[in-house]
Structure formats: structure tokens, C-alpha cells
UniProtKB/TrEMBL annotation:
<protein>
    <recommendedName>
        <fullName>Acyl-CoA reductase</fullName>
        <ecNumber>1.2.1.50</ecNumber>
    </recommendedName>
</protein>
<dbReference type="GO" id="GO:0008218">
    <property type="term" value="P:bioluminescence"/>
</dbReference>
<dbReference type="GO" id="GO:0003995">
    <property type="term" value="F:acyl-CoA dehydrogenase activity"/>
</dbReference>
<dbReference type="InterPro" id="IPR016161">
    <property type="entry name" value="Ald_DH/histidinol_DH"/>
</dbReference>
<dbReference type="InterPro" id="IPR008670">
    <property type="entry name" value="CoA_reduct_LuxC"/>
</dbReference>
<dbReference type="GO" id="GO:0050062">
    <property type="term" value="F:long-chain-fatty-acyl-CoA reductase activity"/>
</dbReference>
<comment type="similarity">
    <text>Belongs to the LuxC family.</text>
</comment>
<dbReference type="Pfam" id="PF05893">
    <property type="entry name" value="LuxC"/>
</dbReference>
<keyword id="KW-0521">NADP</keyword>
<keyword id="KW-0560">Oxidoreductase</keyword>
């Protein structure tokens, strides 16, 4: 069954081509035209063959009986091939993505160049070991026995996953491919309009190693417009998939929620906001203040503030004079990092207008920087109403970091904290407020390998947990009678 977007038209030769990859085969064509989310650049895609992208329930997942060690071997070799400067697919990705992605070339080049680092043997093994108490459950039916002597077997069965990939970070593509392989899933990756290229480039690299490999036969990547009524009502069904693994903004998450029901669940890496908390110890000396501002700028500028872990609000404990000194130093540090990255993106017109308005309210707000996209800091007594992005930081003055706790909620992902020796005093309260991660200020970027992500161990959520009970047990018959009423 082939489907074509309802905005299909004859593609002009100048339109960028974004091919699909369906279970080992590259599919090229210009059946449908789309526009990238941020830049509005046109790109063309082929028809989507849903029969090729879906695995019928009566067919076992191709990776089911491949040992985990062999899967990791293949992923490591893929990483080696990705890092090879002669790899034509990865070098081509940057050229194409520069047309559709909002991030500057230098940042995209760095993202693509470092993506292969995720396919590291120790990293992959640690990820599995942290997600599963006994990783054998991925390879076999592991025997269990309860306190009554009743025996059973448990397996983390290979799931069928649709991954809705984000547009902000090309590096998520390689991570999602690796995670799908580690749980032996059958995977369909819905690429973003900002980056309908990276996932296919990685899968083509895999196919060059072995197009018939079970990993390659378990992977498909395509693009369709989110909410496309010709695609999603067909794909998002429990007959075909077990989980929708969705990254992205509120609209993307809201779009897939309507398809959920018995048998089709959502694993959501939904929109998050990260913050910084800076104690008054930062003003113990000029050097301490400068260091705190530099560390805070590191967190603001993660992926040029496109990542969820990038700090947007900095709650700073001190007097107005002290906090203004911090705001000025933070602005200088942000400008320096923005210039080094080559990021010259203009501010969103609506946000620019709001900041211009605030700049006239000197009694309540103070603004450092030009509104030309080079970096700006707004100091306020309450968090601003807009979402700081594109090298924009909101410094919120508080008398005590305790006052900042009322702004922590379930959408708070990472909290960068200074001074480091006060972190223990706040971690329980931050967790109770809904935050999911506390780190030293300046270390919001890469997390400890294998740690929870968005308050969960994702691989545990991906798999289908299956139990086989054989009905034998070593206990007395009376135990069976005592326990029978507890079964559902």
C-alpha cells in the first residue's frame, strides 16, 4: 500500500531530495513536496510504502534471536564507518541539512561528527545493564521462582516501535537507532522536517556493512507531515505497533495522544524546560561570580539553546545589585559562545517585541544585549511569560533559592546548581516538585551513561514484558489454594 501526502505536487529540480529507507532499501522519488518547520524550505520525498514499513504480527521480529553481543558488535562497526571521513552519506547530510535546519553549519557539523561516539561498546553495554536488572531477558526466557515455589520464565520481548524524532538535535537519530536495536525492536522512524536526512544516512551506512543483517531489516525511516490523515490513522494502530516513542514539542505529543488506546502506548520525551539555581556564594568574590556566570552560559548554550537540557531561567540568590552584575557577566559569556559557533539567527519577532517592551520597564526589568540574535539577558523578579530560546536567558532574582522552588514542576528537566555543596539540600525538594535531574552548574550536557532519562529507564518502557508460567512448583498444595485468589 503506497500513500502520498495530500500536498503532493511535481517537484522542481531545485527542491532538495529526502529519500526514505525501508528495511534495507533506499527509496528515492519526488512524489510529495513538504516544507521544513523553521525555515520553510521545500524538500521532496517519495511515496511511502506502508506494506514495507510494517511488520505483520504473525512474523517474528528479525532481531529476536540475535544475541545482544552480536547486535552491539554491529552497532560498534556502524559507528566506526560513520566516523570515517570517506563516508559519503554522513558528509552529504551536513550539506542537505544546512538548507532545512535552523542551527548554523558549524554546530551541525559538530553534531554529525560526534554522533558516532554514541556507538561505543562500553556505552552500549552500560546502557543495557542500567536499564535491565538481568540483561539476559533480552536474549532468552529467564527462569524465575517466587517464594511459594511457583516457577515461570520472563522475557523482554522485542517490541514494534514508531519513533517520532525531534527536529532540534540530529544526534537523537543515532541514539534512537541504537536503542531500537538493543531491545531488538522492529522500528519505523518518522523523521523531522528540520532533519529528514540523518537517520537515512546512518541506515545506509549500516546497509553498506550488510543490507540483509537483521538490524537493517528491522529499520525503516520516512517523513510525513505530522497529523497527515492519509498516513497516521493507518500506522498508529495496535495491529502494527506496540509503542509510539515521541520526542518533540507539545503539538507533536498532542497529535499522537489521540491514537493511544489498549495495545498502543506512548513513551514520551515531551517538552521540558531546564533551569539554573545560583546561590549567594557566587558573590563571595569577583572570581566566584565570573566562574558562576561562565558555567551558567555553558548550560544556556547547549546546542545553542535548542536542547531540552539548555537552561532558560537562572534563579539567582542575591541583591538587585549583585544579580545585575551576574546578568551582565552572563550576557558577555553568552555573546562570546554565540559568536564562536557562528550562530547569527535573528530572534523570533514576537519574543523580540516582548523583550523590547520589557526594556522600557526599568523598575521591574533590565535587559543586556542587542535584539539581533547575538545574545540577550533579561533580569526580572518573576519568570518572563515567553519561552527563552535562541541565546536568550532570563535571570530571576530571588532572596533565597527556597523561593525558586515554587517555579519547579513536572516540566522541569535539568537543574544546574551552584554552589555544588548545597545540592544535597535541594535534591529531594526538587524531585518532589517534579524535576528529573540535578547537576553541577555547567554540566547540563551529557549525562552519566545509563542514567534515567525524563524520569524513566527508556529501554524498560520500550519492551513487551512477557511471562511464561509452567504451573509447577515445589511448595505444598495448600499454598496453591492460598495464593490462587491473588491472580488476575
Amino acid at each position: 500500500m503506497n500513500v502520498m501526502s495530500d500536498n503532493s505536487q511535481t517537484a522542481d529540480e531545485a527542491v532538495i531530495s529526502a529519500p526514505f529507507f525501508l528495511r534495507g532499501d533506499l527509496v528515492e522519488g519526488t512524489a510529495a513536496n513538504h516544507r521544513s518547520r523553521d525555515l520553510g524550505v521545500e524538500f521532496a520525498t517519495p511515496d511511502l510504502d506502508l506494506d514495507k514499513a510494517i511488520l505483520p504480527r504473525h512474523e517474528l521480529p528479525p532481531l529476536l534471536n540475535m544475541p545482544l553481543d552480536e547486535i552491539i558488535d554491529f552497532l560498534v562497526e556502524t559507528g566506526r564507518r560513520m566516523a570515517d571521513p570517506a563516508n559519503p552519506y554522513m558528509s552529504e547530510v551536513v550539506e542537505r541539512m544546512c538548507n532545512t535546519h535552523i542551527l548554523p553549519r558549524q554546530v551541525l557539523e559538530m553534531q554529525v561528527a560526534t554522533a558516532a561516539a554514541y556507538l561505543n561498546r562500553d556505552l552500549l553495554k552500560t546502557t543495557v545493564e542500567r536499564n535491565f536488572h538481568d540483561p539476559r531477558v533480552l536474549d532468552e526466557w529467564v527462569p524465575q521462582e517466587d517464594f511459594t515455589g511457583r516457577k515461570s520464565y520472563v522475557r523482554a520481548f522485542a517490541p514494534r516501535l514508531v519513533h517520532v524524532l525531534p527536529g532540534n538535535s540530529p544526534g537523537v537519530a543515532v541514539k534512537s537507532i541504537a536503542q531500537g536495536a538493543l531491545v531488538k525492536a522492529f522500528n519505523l522512524f518518522k523523521m523531522s522536517s528540520s532533519d529528514p536526512f540523518t537517520t537515512v544516512a546512518i541506515l545506509r551506512t549500516m546497509a553498506d556493512i550488510d543490507a540483509g543483517h537483521p538490524i537493517v531489516q528491522s529499520m525503516s525511516a520516512a517523513y510525513w507531515r505530522g497529523g497527515d490523515e492519509m498516513v497516521e490513522p493507518i500506522i498508529f494502530r495496535p495491529q502494527y505497533f506496540d509503542r509510539i516513542v515521541a520526542w518533540g514539542g507539545g503539538d507533536a505529543i498532542d497529535n499522537v495522544i489521540k491514537y493511544l488506546g489498549p495495545g498502543l502506548q506512548l513513551v514520551s520525551f515531551d517538552p521540558k524546560t531546564s533551569i539554573s539555581m545560583v546561590g549567594r556564594e557566587a558573590f563571595a568574590s569577583d572570581e566566584a561570580m565570573r566562574q558562576a556566570a561562565e558555567l551558567a552560559a555553558d548550560d544556556v548554550m547547549i546546542l545553542n539553546q535548542e536542547a531540552c537540557v539548555a537552561s532558560r531561567f537562572q534563579f539567582v540568590e542575591g541583591s538587585e545589585e549583585q544579580v545585575d552584575r551576574f546578568g551582565k557577566a552572563l550576557h558577555q559569556a553568552i555573546v562570546k559562545r554565540a559568536a564562536a559557533s557562528g550562530d547569527k539567527r535573528a530572534l523570533d519577532p514576537d519574543m523580540r517585541e516582548q523583550i523590547e517592551t520589557l526594556s522600557f520597564l526599568d523598575d521591574e526589568f533590565r535587559v543586556w544585549g542587542k535584539l539581533d540574535g547575538s545574545g540577550v539577558v533579561v533580569r526580572s523578579e518573576e519568570p518572563v511569560d515567553f519561552h527563552p530560546i535562541n541565546k536568550t536567558a532570563n535571570v530571576v532574582r530571588v532572596d533565597s533559592l527556597d523561593d525558586a522552588m515554587r517555579f519547579v514542576n513536572v516540566a522541569t528537566q535539568t537543574v544546574g546548581f551552584y554552589p555544588f555543596d548545597r545540592m544535597d539540600d535541594y535534591r529531594d525538594r526538587l524531585a518532589s516538585g517534579g524535576a528529573q535531574r540535578i547537576v553541577r552548574l555547567g554540566e547540563g550536557g551529557p549525562s552519566t551513561i545509563g542514567n534515567p532519562h525524563d524520569a524513566m529507564y527508556p529501554l524498560q518502557r520500550f519492551v513487551q514484558w512477557m511471562a511464561h508460567e509452567d504451573g509447577t512448583r515445589a511448595g505444598a498444595d495448600s499454598a496453591q489454594g492460598d495464593m490462587s485468589g491473588t491472580l488476575e
